[in-house]
From TrEMBL:
Ubl conjugation recorded as keyword: no
Xref: Gene3D superfamilies: Aldolase class I (3.20.20.70)
BP-aspect Gene Ontology terms: gluconeogenesis; glyceraldehyde-3-phosphate biosynthetic process; glycerol catabolic process; glycolytic process
Name the record gives this protein: Triosephosphate isomerase
Keyword Oxidoreductase appears in the UniProt entry: no
Annotated transmembrane regions: none
Residues in coiled coil: none
Organism in which the protein naturally occurs: Candidatus Nomurabacteria bacterium RIFCSPLOWO2_12_FULL_44_11
């Protein structure tokens, strides 16, 4: 049985480090008794250092992106970039890669693939986002997700697959998408099974089974239970609702209370 994981993606929020630290301290207090859920918060880069100084063994830190290369000397002439090594040295354990909001800036599967390799070699666990823009009647969305999974994971050593977390985030359900629609656990289940089969085809069923698959897209404290119980996933990636410490912690509580 894989440990369930709840990840908060703060995106470009909050506006001050003070608010970020207050959120984190409060969350650390509220989850101090949690036992079975792995909890990860991915704030903007700028807050990682301060948050890494707040003592908690329950909440781990993730970044929202990383540089695609691991320069041999550890650094280099890459203005504006942050390397996986820098993140690792700060105590960061995870990194979101291939998020649809970064793909909208031109990031493609090949760049995500490089970033995954760099992150893995620096000791980070990649949270790789995949997901279609729309669902079409001829089910082309399966091909889109299959291509993303295959291209993003091309050439990754089989020994590393257990460190990879795949987050299925259909863009049509993300909170900031115009005219968004709610996804239901059936949507998540169908795609989680399909992603597992795709992973199995490119590795082996045993290796595919070690990869954690998450659902993300407007998950909140009201629908998290459905996704966690019936969506065939090993956790959820939470955007908007993770900005409220109460909502996020309620999702963790729901996960803790699940019988699995
Ligand atoms: C996300 O974009 O990673 C996400 C999960 O967003 P939201 O929950 O706000 O839809």
């Amino acid at each position: 049985m894989k440990r369930k994981i709840i990840i908060g993606n703060w995106k470009m929020n909050p506006n001050t480090g003070k608010v970020a630290s207050k959120w984190f301290q409060e969350a650390a207090r509220l989850v101090s008794r949690s036992k079975k859920t792995e909890i990860v918060i991915c704030p903007p880069f700028i807050y990682l250092d301060n948050l890494s100084r707040i003592r908690t063994s329950k909440i781990k830190l993730g970044a929202q992106d990383t540089f695609a290369e691991n320069p041999p000397a550890g650094g280099g002439p890459f203005t504006g970039e942050v390397s996986s090594e820098m993140l690792y040295n700060l105590g960061v354990g995870y990194v979101i890669l291939g998020h649809s909001e970064r793909r909208a800036f031109g990031e493609n599967n090949q760049i995500v693939n490089k970033k995954i390799k760099g992150a893995l070699s620096a000791g980070l666990r990649p949270i790789v986002c995949v997901g279609e823009e729309e669902r079409d009647e001829s089910h082309k969305y399966f091909d889109i997700v299959k291509k993303q999974v295959k291209e993003c994971l091309a050439g990754i050593s089989r020994d590393s697959f257990h460190k990879i977390i795949l987050a299925y985030e259909p863009i049509w359900s993300i909170s900031t998408t115009k005219a968004r629609r709610d996804a239901v656990p059936d949507d998540s289940r169908e795609m989680a099974v399909f992603i597992r089969k795709t992973l199995s085809d490119i590795t082996t069923p045993a290796i595919a089974n070690k990869v954690r698959i998450l659902y993300g897209g407007s998950v909140n404290e009201r629908d998290a239970e459905g996704f966690l119980r019936d969506g065939r996933v090993d956790g959820v990636l939470v955007g908007q609702a993770s900005l409220s410490v109460e909502k996020f912690i309620e999702i963790v509580r729901i996960c803790e209370a699940l019988k699995n």
